[in-house]
């Protein structure tokens, strides 16, 4: 399968969905719409919504149904980056080669744009459920997706990981705590996307759990691969990573182990064509940047 | 009716509900739970959740059903205050006589606590729907409430008002824009609470719209009363308020007019005992602080 073509195809669908979001741009508060737009269209890989859509496609065809949840997850990811980059957080001036939101629009507007995006993610889901649910089965699965997404992005999920990251010091960090941070800060939203795709695709409980397990291991492999790439950029000195606890060889083995576990989880999906996820996993763990 | 006793009674129910929220406090990220706790229990009047509960009680008795939505709305209100107080926003060191969140826990943690609270509001609703909805009618009304709440708190609601407030200058502010700001920044969450109470209480569409109209006018009366109180504290010079466009006499008349409109909206609720809302309106528009 041609991974890059597939990524491009799905990305253009996501672009279209994002462009349809704002009801009316000619409003008093249009500045926040410009601020949100800037971050949504700043060249992100859109891995999470792509994973949600491709997970859905393992089970069902009509991707209209998964799109609102896919873009909601990308909104949550995007808001977390805007807030992460703020001066009192990571204080980053650039992301993906472009000035960060607060450098362009000011700190206050960046905070509100992040808040607005998180809220918009839930508005998008609420709108979809209210408009599209017909049967009680529809309501059940949409509500389950809403619950999974809200859980993975909250204080027991992504935000929890950011708190641990924020408070991390060389004295208080343990390997166990680091793995908790990787599971929440990195794997959680990936799991959120994969599980949501499966739920909306009406996968069986066993298949949903297979995607959850796949996401966890892919997330960990992805993050440790990131740590390995960071070492080449001399970032390791100030950052606490997997390489604060292990040498490079062990880190490479860990990436292998987690990606093998991820691939194994895919075997829980009998008779589904998982070529895309196999190719994506191989791409993500061998990437050079 | 004894308004103060009733406010106290409902407030203690809300306190109990808040105390049950956190599943597990012995976690790596417990600092954010402490940060959130600090702001939830800092002596706010809890007007919005009280309004949600009392609106529900106009139509139904079992307040267990409205509580998750009532506390969700208070979480949204609380997160907006935490973010509003940040140095890049209003830069307030004190709220309700206590140091603001960022003064106690630092700016980064205050940002995350706000994000966490907004997210938690939606987690709380998702949990409730997933666990308690039995019939399709349950799903329909819970989803409608979720949609109303997410809309009123978003960029076309509360956040939209904050954007206008943030960008306000004496040159660009008009009375029309100011009223838009009051409707979104102040009235929206009040309407959100009242409408949600009515929807979950299975009010008729006409009754839901009566509560929406009541909330809009109460919100405007409340905000202009606030402006009048501000003038006595000499805050008026730097702030754009109703009194930037009108003299004190006109402002007092406006409070009267909006509160009369509010009272009139209550008449759309045939045979309901609206004593509480009449007493609350009278209290709010005549308050001295």
Automatic annotation (TrEMBL), chains A, B:
Its cofactor is Mg(2+). Its EC number is 2.5.1.10. Keywords: Isoprene biosynthesis, Magnesium, Metal-binding, Transferase. The keyword Metal-binding applies. The keyword Transferase applies. One of its GO terms (molecular function) is metal ion binding. GO terms for biological process: terpenoid biosynthetic process. Gene3D superfamilies: Farnesyl Diphosphate Synthase (1.10.600.10). Pfam families: polyprenyl_synt. CDD domains: Trans_IPPS_HT (cd00685). SUPFAM superfamilies: Terpenoid synthases (SSF48576). InterPro entries: Isoprenoid_synthase_dom_sf, Polyprenyl_synt, Polyprenyl_synt_CS. It catalyses: isopentenyl diphosphate + (2E)-geranyl diphosphate = (2E,6E)-farnesyl diphosphate + diphosphate. It is an enzyme of class 2 (transferase). Belongs to the FPP/GGPP synthase family. This is Farnesyl diphosphate synthase.
């Amino acid at each position: 399968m041609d991974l890059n073509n597939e990524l491009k195809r799905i990305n253009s669908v996501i672009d279209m969905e994002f462009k349809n979001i704002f009801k009316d741009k000619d409003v008093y508060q249009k500045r926040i719409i410009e601020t949100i737009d800037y971050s949504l269209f700043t060249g992100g890989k859109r891995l999470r919504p792509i994973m949600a859509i491709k997970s859905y496609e393992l089970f069902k065809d009509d991707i209209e149904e998964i799109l609102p949840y896919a873009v909601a997850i990308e909104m949550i990811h995007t808001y977390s980056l805007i807030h992460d980059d703020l001066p009192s957080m990571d204080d980053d001036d650039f992301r993906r080669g472009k000035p960060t939101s607060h450098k362009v629009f000011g700190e206050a507007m960046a905070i509100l744009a992040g808040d607005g995006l998180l809220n918009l993610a839930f508005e998008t889901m609420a709108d979809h459920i209210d408009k599209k649910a017909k049967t009680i089965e529809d309501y059940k699965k949409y509500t389950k997706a809403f619950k999974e997404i809200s859980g993975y992005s909250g204080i027991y999920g992504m935000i929890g990981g950011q708190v641990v990251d924020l408070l991390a010091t060389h004295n208080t960090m343990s390997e166990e705590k680091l793995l908790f941070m990787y599971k929440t800060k990195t794997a959680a939203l990936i799991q959120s996307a994969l599980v949501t795709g499966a739920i909306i695709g009406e996968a069986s409980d066993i298949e949903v759990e297979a995607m959850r397990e796949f996401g966890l291991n892919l997330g960990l492999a992805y993050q440790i691969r990131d740590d390995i790439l960071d070492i080449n950029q001399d970032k390791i000195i100030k950052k606490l990573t997997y390489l604060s606890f292990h040498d490079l060889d062990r880190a490479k083995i860990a990436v292998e182990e987690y990606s093998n576990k991820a691939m194994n989880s895919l075997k829980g999906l009998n008779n589904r064509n998982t070529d895309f996820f196999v190719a994506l996993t191989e791409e993500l763990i061998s990437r050079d940047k």
